[in-house]
Amino acid sequence: MSTKYIVRQPIKDLENHIVGYEIQYYGENQAFGGEDAAANDFAAADTIYNFLTLNTDKLLRGKLHFMTFTTTLLMKKTPRLFDKNELVIQIDDSVIIHPLAMHMIQQYAREGYQIAVNEFQFAPRYLAMLDSIDYIKLNFQTMQDLTLKNIIEIAHSMDKKCIAVGIDREELYQRAVKLGVDAVEGTLVAEKMAQKTHNSGYLQSNFFRLMVAVIRDEPNVEEIEQIISVDATLTYGLLRIANSRYFSLRSKVTNVRQAIMTIGLNELKQWVYLLSASNAENHMDESAEEFLRLSLMRAHFCSSLTNYAKQLPITKSDAYLMGMFSTLNYLIDAPLEEILKQIPLCQEVKDALLHHSGRSGMLYDLALCYERADWAQIDRLAGELGIQANLLTSLYFSCMEDVNRIWRDITQASGEPPILEEEQQES
Q1: Which CATH class is domain 5-191?
Q2: What number of other Cβ atoms are within 10 A of residue 383's Cβ?
Q3: How far is it, in rounded angstroms, from Cα 362 to Cα 176?
Q4: What are the phi and psi torsion angles at 119 (to 5°)?
Q5: How much is the pLDDT for 62?
Q6: N or C terminus: which one in the chain shows less Cβ crowding within 10 Å?
Q7: What is Dmax (Cα atoms) for the chain?
Q8: What's the pLDDT score for residue 368?
Q9: Distance between terminal CA atoms of the chain?
Q10: Alpha-carbon distance 413 to 415, whole Å?
Q11: What is the mean pLDDT of residues 83-111?
């Protein structure tokens, strides 16, 4: 059986807010269109169907998810595995020219599912189905501006939304903006930073959990460590303090537990109070929150990959920090090189983050390529690292499940700051 990969990529509006994710899968379904296309189609659909059946809860959480369905997957009623409020059924030309498949699409639309069309064309069969669709996806790498402009104007006149796909460089992004699309998707979009960065980019609800933990009569160091370790900016700030001249250290502090023990709970409590004062005037936007979540996902994925990669010069803990700190330049208003000078990360991790060099850089690049659905590079890097490629999808979704659970715990925390001991005494 050939390797399969399944990954999700963000779709963002022009204000850099995530409107949904596209679920992309690769592997067995690449057999479509072979000499025995029908048999291959069914075999591929079976594999995808079985995987989706086992992973629906991991795949769809909260946002809209765009997923391409072949005729065979539609016939197997695969869309009904998902909540219609979280799924957009995406189709391409092979479905549009299939009478039975189109009948099923119209039925799903009547049931309340949203429909998207990949690489919309100015052709009668596409125009005839406009009433049944909600999203039109346009390939900005292959289509001319005049054609794009006409399609976008028609779509907007019928209250349809247009998504520009294949946006992998700034020139294409600016074309999409100029032509008035509603959302964009592509490797540049996944990495594009918010226009305004924050110098207090920690997640507010997570910070409140930390405040509650540090003001307990008997603070639990393990609980405090867990809270700080899932937040890139809190981890970075704590490591900076623990390695400052104030503590006159003979050896460098390289992880959260060491940092807590080095500065002590009293100093930690004061640091949290100072952060709470600065937080009163700063509120995290959705983009910064998304980068925090991305850093947590990368930390878990890089850490998991160390269990299988051969001849790595870094530890599991180093790999975790590598993923965690990969988005700091989006959360802190400074170049990543300057940020990393402030903390004693091992040189291999710094070289990986800054120059993508060495085997650590290969591990980091593998995580990035998986995010981008760069299938050829995934195969190459996995092979060079000695990782069995067929492990990657299960590892990725296991990490996603962990991150979803952690994120749910964080964001369900109380949105109100706790009453501090000083406030209790004043009252």
Answers
A1: alpha beta
A2: 11
A3: 32
A4: 45, 60
A5: 59
A6: C
A7: 80
A8: 94
A9: 68
A10: 6
A11: 88
- The pLDDT of residue 54: 57
Distance CA 359, CA 268 (A): 36
Locate all alpha helices (DSSP H) within 11-121, ordered by sequence.
37-59, 71-75, 93-96, 99-110
C-beta separation of 381 from 366 below 8 A:
yes
Q: In whole angstroms, give the CA distance from residue 157 to residue 151.
A: 10
Are 254 and 344 a contacting pair, CB within 8 Å? Answer: yes
Domain spans in the chain, listed from the N-terminal domain onward: 5-191, 204-284, 286-409
Residue 275: C-alpha distances to residues 113, 127, 207, 222 (Å): 45, 56, 9, 21
Please tell me the distance from the alpha carbon of residue 152 to that of residue 179, in angstroms, as a whole number. Answer: 8
Element (H, E) at 174: helix 170-179
Using pLDDT thresholds of 50, 70 and 90, give the confidence band for residue 416: very low
Q: pTM for this one?
A: 0.69
Please, which pLDDT band fits residue 318 given cuts at 50, 70 and 90?
very high
Q: Which three-class secondary structure state does DSSP give residue 80?
A: helix
Strands (E), 86-143: 87-91, 114-117, 135-139
Q: In which band, very low, low, confident or very high, does the pLDDT at 392 lie, cut at 50, 70 and 90?
A: very high
DSSP letters, 316-341, are: HHHHHHHHHGGGHHHHSSS-HHHHHT
At 367, which amino acid appears?
A
In the block, residue with structure tokens 């028609």: 154
In this structure, how many other beta carbons lie within 10 angstroms of the beta carbon of residue 344?
17
Tokens (6 digits) for 284 = 């995290």
CA dist., res. 65 & res. 8, Å (int): 9
Q: CA–CA distance from 423 to each of 273, 274, 426, 427 (Å)? A: 12, 15, 5, 6
Does residue 161 contact residue 136 with C-beta atoms inside 8 Å? Answer: yes
- Give residue 84's identity as a one-letter amino acid code: K
Rounded Cα gap, residues 360 and 56, in angstroms: 32
Q: Which residues contact 416 (CB under 8 A, 6 or more apart)?
A: 208
Q: Predicted confidence band at 202 (pLDDT cuts at 50, 70, 90)?
A: low
CA distance 362 to 384: 8
